[in-house]
């Protein structure tokens, strides 16, 4: 015995609890557990291929102890590596069927070299041969050779669970996965074989792969005189699809609207060089909307005494000149001593800058 009877019993109890509901999903899981076990068995078999009884097999030892290659010691080493210690289902299955591994190892291996087939399918009956499903291993829809005609997955394929029905791959539909789905056309088809390909992006129904083969255009595309589906240029429509402060960008089958540069009043593209007209405070300079410096205009914009003009983006400010402060709408001289004592240092760097008499901001 490889593990104690007590552990075995405990596993059995836990296992009965875990499959208490006996759904088809559990049956599928049993098969994949079994498959994992037999795969690990094959790996363990390879891993131990060049081993021997520790010290090296002398001729005497070989005669006396029988070969390591076919020994119980090698079997135990392989079986120990079949499951992660945390994998309950795996450990349980190995425990429950431990004697089958011994039977196969000593008596069946030569006649039935495929352990998965002998153990999972024939002996403990949790799996079925490829292309078959369910308790009796019936053929999948479309036959066991090419389930779902090669265009889908058969439910329960290779397990004792499932219903054998197909879930078709992308592009295929129908019980047998022989029909083409929407936006696909049939390139080749007979009773047992079907090849579907995708339509051109401009159509929803088609008889071939190009825009000329459309039977129905997708939204955003329209039929031209020759019967091809061509992109609709939404941007050239009347009325235009975008807002006044936006420009339009046509794309295949669609379009998008983006906000104009703030220097533009209406535009045909991105940036200040694509304006239809300039925003207030900006003027066209060689095709680009640039800020107007109101302070340099021939007619002064800040007209009060001791006022100075400060240009801003798209506008300007009138503020009291250095040493003057605003009082009742006028710029008056500031008492210098008081000023330097009361004002914190950071403000002193730009004296009176914050004091505005007027701001002309049109944006
Ligand atoms: C169906 O077409 C496939 C692919 O061309 C071909 O291999 C197969 O023999 C055909 N079957 C019949 C019944 O014509
Ligand atoms: C105007 O817009 C086009 C795209 O519509 C862009 O390629 C071009 O660079 C823009 N011109 C300027 C001067 O920004």
TrEMBL record:
Please give the biological process terms from Gene Ontology that the record holds: epithelial cell differentiation
Paired cysteines (S-S): 168-177
Identify one Gene Ontology CC term for this UniProt entry: endoplasmic reticulum
TM stretches of this protein: none
Superkingdom: Eukaryota
Q: Where in or outside the cell is it found?
A: Endoplasmic reticulum
Read off the Pfam families from this record: DUF3456, EGF_CA
SUPFAM superfamilies given for it? Answer: EGF/Laminin, Growth factor receptor domain
Signal peptide per UniProt = 1-24
- Mind telling me what this protein is named? EGF-like domain-containing protein
Write down the species: Electrophorus electricus (Electric eel)
């Amino acid at each position: 015995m490889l593990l104690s009877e007590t552990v075995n019993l405990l596993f059995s109890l836990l296992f009965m609890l875990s499959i208490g509901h006996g759904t088809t999903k559990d049956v599928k899981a049993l098969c994949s557990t079994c498959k994992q076990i037999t795969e690990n068995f094959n790996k363990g078999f390879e891993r131990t291929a060049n081993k021997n009884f520790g010290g090296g097999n002398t001729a005497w030892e070989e005669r006396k102890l029988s070969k390591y290659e076919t020994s119980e010691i090698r079997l135990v080493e392989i079986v120990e590596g079949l499951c992660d210690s945390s994998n309950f289902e795996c450990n349980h299955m190995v425990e429950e069927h431990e004697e089958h591994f011994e039977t196969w190892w000593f008596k069946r291996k030569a006649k039935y070299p495929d352990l998965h087939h002998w153990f999972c399918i024939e002996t403990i009956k949790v799996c079925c041969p490829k292309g078959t499903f369910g308790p009796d291993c019936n053929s999948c829809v479309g036959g066991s050779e090419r389930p779902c005609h090669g265009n889908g997955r058969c439910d329960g394929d290779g397990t004792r669970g499932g219903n054998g029905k197909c879930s078709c791959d992308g592009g295929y539909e129908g019980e047998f996965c022989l029909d083409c789905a929407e936006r696909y056309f049939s390139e080749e088809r007979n009773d047992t074989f079907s090849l579907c390909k995708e339509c051109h992006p401009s159509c929803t129904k088609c008889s071939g792969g190009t825009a000329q083969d459309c039977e129905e255009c997708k939204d955003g595309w329209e039929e031209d005189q020759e019967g091809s589906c061509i992109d609709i240029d939404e941007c050239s429509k009347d009325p235009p699809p975008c807002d006044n402060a936006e420009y339009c960008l046509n794309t295949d089958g669609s379009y998008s609207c983006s906000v104009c540069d703030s220097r533009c009043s209406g535009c045909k593209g991105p940036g200040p060089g694509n304006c239809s007209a300039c925003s207030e405070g900006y003027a066209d300079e060689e095709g680009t909307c640039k800020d107007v410096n109101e302070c340099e205009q021939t007619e002064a914009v800040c007209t009060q005494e001791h006022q100075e003009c400060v240009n801003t983006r798209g506008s300007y400010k009138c503020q009291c000149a250095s040493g003057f402060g605003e009082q009742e709408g006028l710029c008056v001289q500031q008492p210098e001593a008081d000023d330097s004592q009361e004002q914190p240092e950071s403000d002193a760097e730009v004296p009176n800058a914050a004091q505005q008499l007027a701001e002309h901001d049109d944006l």
